[in-house]
Specification:
MOFRL_protein; glycerate kinase activity; Rossmann fold; globular; alpha/beta; glycerate kinase, domain 1; EC 1.1.1.81; hydroxypyruvate reductase [NAD(P)H] activity; about 425 residues; six-stranded mixed β-sheet
């Protein structure tokens, strides 16, 4: 390792490299179809990257196409655009601003003709931002359902199956509404990069069913409003139309293009470590599970490397992506602060108990880890000792799911502000 680079700086630089690899302003133009010489080009979309993707489309098509459109992104994630209107709305819990934007998007898409073109910009966070409840479900009940699924720790893929079957726009229904050819650009934030799971797949065939959605609610013991339960039960009985399925001819007119993935970002981060003389091992971009449990597994691997230089010899960086979960017990939500990245890191700190020459970072590539304004946090060998010196108990903070409070107390939060992209969580453990 380059002796002039300190571990903290190297970890932060690796995270910046991961985020830069998914920057829409740099990557969107190469994936766009040629400018449409015929009718209108309508641009719609949703997600944490929606504003930067929209701006990238405007720059690529400047003076070459008749652009119009609307995209919806998270509050404080907007950017100034000229032809494509940017709406800010609620995430992770949907709100009325997102509902209105989704209704406007659907109406604009339904008005397109065969000579027009539809470009859809999809990124992580789009499921809650593009919320247009199915008939008979009030927005308040959709909000309550989202909160309940978040509380019970349902993974995002399962949450999105429920969302698809309580929506008028997701699960392929947006593509179903268009008479114009559809090109969708997708920034993936889900493990495995399944396009039907990203923003609940508004232009992608949906293989899941109403029965699947009901089974998910039962599996996690999710108590949802009566309107949601009744709608799903009617769908399972065949009384409500299913989402369009794989093989439906309507998708012959749809081109879904994956333009950024977690794996691409992890490889960019690995290249940064190697540039500084550190071996980098990508352990996978599909790591899921409870944040605390994942941390215990990683701690065991770190101890093996420190003791035996196996299966990898130090110096080495262990890099992974994916999306962990944090399941909050009843009554814990008021004291909980932080998110899955900082909770993973705090659990790792306790497991390693000050093991020398081990540093780590865990941060969300969208710049927001859970409930606060930080992307994640940094861990050093002396983190526990510094916390104890300030009167902060790591165990108490972890039991209260207040990882933010722990890292804030020792000044080790990573704060980037909105990155306007999202390829899920980034974790790197540097063993020297």
């Amino acid at each position: 390792m380059n002796p002039q680079v300190d571990p903290r700086t190297l970890l932060l630089e690796s995270f910046r490299a991961a985020v830069a690899a998914a920057d829409p302003l740099e990557i969107v133009a190469a994936h766009l179809p040629p400018p449409h010489a015929g009718g209108r080009t309508l641009v719609v979309g949703a997600g944490k990257a929606a504003a930067s993707m929209a701006l990238a489309v405007e720059r690529a098509y400047q003076g070459k196409a008749k652009l119009e459109g609307i995209v919806v992104t998270r509050y404080a994630h907007g950017l100034p655009t000229e032809h494509i209107r940017v709406i800010e709305a609620g995430h992770p819990v949907p709100d009325e601003a997102g509902e209105q934007a989704a209704a406007d998007i659907l109406a604009r898409v339904q008005a397109l003709g065969p000579d027009d073109r539809l470009i859809v910009l999809v990124s992580g966070g789009g499921s809650s931002l593009l919320s247009l409840p199915a008939e008979g479900i009030p927005m308040a009940d959709l909000k309550a359902t989202t909160r309940e699924l978040l509380r019970c720790g349902a993974p995002i893929t399962d949450m999105n199956i429920v969302r698809k079957h309580t929506s008028r726009i997701q699960g392929g229904r947006l593509a179903q509404a268009s008479r114009a050819p559809v090109t969708t650009l997708i920034v993936s934030d889900v493990a495995g990069d399944d396009p039907s799971a990203i923003a609940s797949g508004p232009t992608v065939p949906d293989a899941s069913t109403y029965a699947d959605a009901l089974a998910i609610l039962k599996r996690y013991g999710a108590a949802v409003p009566a309107t949601v339960q009744a709608h799903l039960e009617r769908g399972a009985r065949g009384e409500v139309e299913e989402t369009p399925k794989p093989g439906d001819p309507l998708f012959m007119n749809v081109d879904n293009r994956m333009i950024a993935t977690a794996h691409d970002s992890l490889e960019a981060a690995a290249a940064e470590f190697r540039r500084q003389g550190v071996n980098a091992v990508v352990l996978g971009d599909t790591v899921t599970g409870e944040a605390q449990e994942v941390a215990r597994v990683y701690a065991a691997l770190v101890r093996e490397i420190r003791a035996y230089n196996a299966p990898f010899a130090a110096p080495v960086a262990l890099i992974s992506g994916g999306e962990c979960t944090v399941t909050l017990p009843s009554g814990a939500s008021e004291s909980a602060r932080g998110g899955r990245c900082s909770e993973f890191l705090l659990s790792l700190a306790i497991e390693l108990a000050g093991t020398p020459n081990v540093h780590a970072i865990a941060a969300d590539t969208d710049g927001i880890d859970g409930s606060e304004d930080n992307a994640g946090a940094l861990l050093a060998p002396d983190s526990l000792a510094r916390a104890e010196g300030s009167g902060t108990s790591a165990r108490q903070k972890l039991d209260a799911h207040d990882a933010w409070g722990f890292f804030d107390a020792i000044g080790d939060l990573v704060v980037t502000g909105p990155t306007r992209t999202n390829v899920n969580d980034y974790r790197a453990i540097l063993i020297l």
